[in-house]
Amino acid sequence: MTVSHREQRAQFDRDGYVVLRDVIKDATLEGLKAAIAEHVEAHDPEADKAVFRTDDRDAGREESFFASARGIQGFLEAEAVDEEGELSAPRDRCLNKIGHALHDLDSEFGALARSPLVKDAFSIGGVERPRLVQSMVIFKPPGIGGEVRWHQDASYLLTRPQQVVGLWIALEDADRSNGCLWMSPGAHRSPLRERFEVDWASRRGELRDLDPTPWPTEAVPLEVRAGSMVVFHDHMPHRSEANRSPRSRAAVTLHAHAADAEWAPENWLQRDPLPPFDL
How many independent structural domains does the chain possess? Predict the structure, then answer.
């Protein structure tokens, strides 16, 4: 049964997210995977050991993280590095993610970002004139893919007025065994609990508590096949469990805000001198 754009928009307003199943063509997925393989090959994990983790309240952010807003940077899984700082996982399975300007600097990601499907998906989330600010690949490698704690994307991507929408695109099948997304329908109406702010004078970021509202105790797993997309609100709490399975769970994420909204200067992600990427 075909669901209309109006019904999808109503579902987004009610639940805080919409799952669009099997909407990305196989040829597009293969093109993205080929581009990703080139970036993985170009990353030298022995020389560049920047690690991305979420269990330290974002205390470990460093210059390579801030610079990735304007480039393509690989970040290792925490469990891919041993206590001596040496790589403990195969080169092609050690990355947590790459980001955050793939849409600017890679033609496959640029084509995806400018596709009618992506623009329509942002429209489902209420953003009619989207300005794309972030793109990344999240790998969830087999065996060592780390848990991602409850969080809200508005903690990291602030606009005034607040209007950011995320797209999560499955490159591979995602289920409970390999770390699919979990969301809590309607929880996007809850307060923003945290805010990550950067003091650019010291170039240090801090995750600041804003509201004591507990994280959801009830959530649903978003089990989807490769080629599916999740459109979600920036206040929607979401998480994913560690991947201890033998299967990876790679996904692409894109974030955009309304072009007429102000991008906050205390955001960690600052694109200048990259031009605005309006869809």
Answer: 1
